[in-house]
Amino acid sequence: MKQSEIQMQEFAARTQKSKAALENGKKYIPLGVTSNFRYYPPHPVFVERAEGGRFWDLDGHEYLDHNLCFGVLIGGHSNPVVLEAVSQQFEKGTMYGMPYELEQKMAAELVSRFPIDRVRFANSGTEATMHAIRVARGFTGRDKIIKMEGCYHGVHDSVLVSFKPPIEKAGDPKMPTRVKSSLGVPDGTADNTIPCTFNDLEALDNCFRANREQVAAVILEPIMFNIGVAMPEAGYLQAVHDQCRKNGALFIVDEVKTGVKLAHGGACEYFGLKPDLICLAKAIGGGFPLAAFGGRLEVMDVLEKGLVFHAGTYNSNTVGIAAGYAMLTKVLTKDVYPRLSKLNQMLIDGYNDILKKNGLKGYAIGAGCNGTVQFAEREVKNYRDWLHVDEEMWKVWWYGLLNRGILAQAYAWDEQWTICVAHTENDMEMHLDRVRELVPLLQKAQG
Ligand code: PMP
Questions:
Q1: Contact 249/215 with Cβ under 8 angstroms?
Q2: Is 123 in the pocket of ligand 1 (CB under 6 A)?
Q3: What is the arithmetic mean of pLDDT over 281-293?
Q4: Which of 257, 280, 372 best tests ligand 1's pocket when mutated (most atoms within 8 Å of CB)?
Q5: With 80 as the cut, is the pLDDT of residue 395 above it?
Q6: For ligand 1, atom 12: residue with the closest CA
Q7: What is the 442 CA–ligand 1 centroid distance (Å)?
Q8: Residue nearest atom 2 of ligand 1, based on CA coordinates
Q9: Helix axis angle, 297-304 to 125-140, nearest 10°
Q10: Residue 365's pLDDT is what?
């Protein structure tokens, strides 16, 4: 039996209540979960409660939580500062569907952190990228967008293309073949999405050349956080922006995962970027649904003039805004970032030390409060590289840690861990100790 199967069996045996809960849920909910990303075999852990940097499952086990709702909860579960702000807002109304002053303060906070002049709110990362793309199309009068193969930007039709295409269908990396990522995405929409290869300026040039004066925007994640962690090569992001300018296209940076996490001013600050549009979600809501898209004045003017339509009943709902504003102004202040990076570096260095000393394939990599282990021979720089990650080793690591009280990251080798303000140096040490216990199993797994 494979090492990963042994770990999964152990996991199944210790989480019997989660197993029963999934069976029950399947009577009402397809696959028993309400987002495809929440399912993994043999059954996902069901949460009983969560607090700070930890959660407890139905069988009573405690876990150090590095998933933190797919990286949302940099402030930890139920951050008391956020709860206080939300309970005060509860007294004043949970939804208005009318303008109010706190949304302006939140907008001003985002404008002060990011190189944008105007911002509008939405409720999810999906909405943020959907609206930003529509703004770009409206502004340029063009329909096509270039997106990076392997990048995830949510579940609307324009971006559910070449998310994780099967390699046999993906074609030449210098000009990838478009592959729809779901049934139900119309050909007419998918045809306007051009897949490209991350960290490859020649591929980008090819995409632009083949679609002259038709590209409205390039959208990308500045660090590819949906193939683990793939850093942009030095100068790559600026060069993409320059290419966009040259071709009359806008540069959209999807900061759903990086915004207010990688740094106080997200990836724009970290890499010194000034894109035309940015997309925000996850951490900006402090644990409640909130998203935003913003850009320079001239671009966002299409909204001011009513040329591009944007609306939504739940946009800037008072609870999300109150939570997000408290999170940004009282929790995620400038001094927090060095502390989180230090903890993250402790984990990264610890992992690299363990891997090296024990002859294990792979490396740990990260930035800001996020990181992961890529069980690969060489550095993952794009989606095609990521396909070489050793799934067996990853599963031994992930289920092995789960069986030892650590949720290392959300399920699958395309995710990464998050460090939150409630985590401590002791937590990092405990995490690394548990990894040391797994070394013999990982050695067997790599054969
Ligand atoms: N963009 C990126 C980079 C993401 O990682 C995600 C979600 N993981 C989204 C967009 C979509 O966000 P949501 O799930 O809130 O729709």
A1: yes
A2: no
A3: 98
A4: 257
A5: yes
A6: 125
A7: 31
A8: 153
A9: 90
A10: 98
Ligand 1 pocket check for 221: Cβ under 6 Å = yes
How many angstroms does the Cα of residue 48 sit away from the middle of ligand 1? 25
Q: What is the pLDDT of residues 20-42, one digit of tens each?
A: 999 999 999 999 999 999 999 99
Domain with CATH 3.90.1150.10 in the chain: 3-75+335-445
Q: Are β-strands 47-51 and 54-57 bridged in parallel, bridged antiparallel, or unpaired?
A: antiparallel
What is the reported pLDDT for 282? 98
pLDDT in tens, 320-375: 999 999 999 999 999 999 999 999 999 999 999 999 999 999 999 999 999 999 99
Q: Which residues contact 328 (CB under 8 A, 6 or more apart)?
A: 106, 109, 110, 113, 260, 284, 286
CATH number of 80-331: 3.40.640.10
Q: Is there an atom of ligand 1 within 6 Å of 368 CB?
A: no
Do residues 324 and 286 lie in contact, with contact meaning Cβ atoms separated by under 8 Å?
Answer: yes
Give the whole-angstrom CA distance, residue 360 versus residue 79.
37
Is CATH 3.30.1310.10 correct for 3-75+335-445?
no
pLDDT of residue 447: 75
Percent of the residues in the chain that have a pLDDT greater than 70, as a whole number: 100
Q: CA-CA-CA-CA torsion for 58, 63, 67, 68, nearest 10 degrees?
A: 80
SS3 64: strand
Best probe residue, ligand 1, of 256, 288, 370, 414 (max atoms within 8 Å of C-beta): 256
Catalytic residue numbers, as ranges: 152, 254, 282
Ligand 1 lined by 371 (C-beta under 6 Å): no
Which ligand 1 atom is at minimum distance from the Cα of 154? 11
- Please state, in angstroms and rounded to a whole number, the distance separating the CA atoms of residues 183 and 190: 11
CATH 3.40.640.10 domain position(s) in the chain: 80-331
Both structure tokens of 207 = 């995409």
- By CB atoms closer than 10 A (0-12, 13-18, 19+), residue 45 is buried
* Position in ligand 1 atom list of the atom nearest CA 155: 16
How far is the centre of ligand 1, averaged over its atoms, from the C-alpha of 226 (Å)? 9
Rg (CA), the chain: 22
State which ligand 1 atom lies nearest to the alpha carbon of 124. Answer: 15
DSSP symbol at 164: S
76 Cβ inside 6 Å of ligand 1 = no
The reported pTM is 0.98
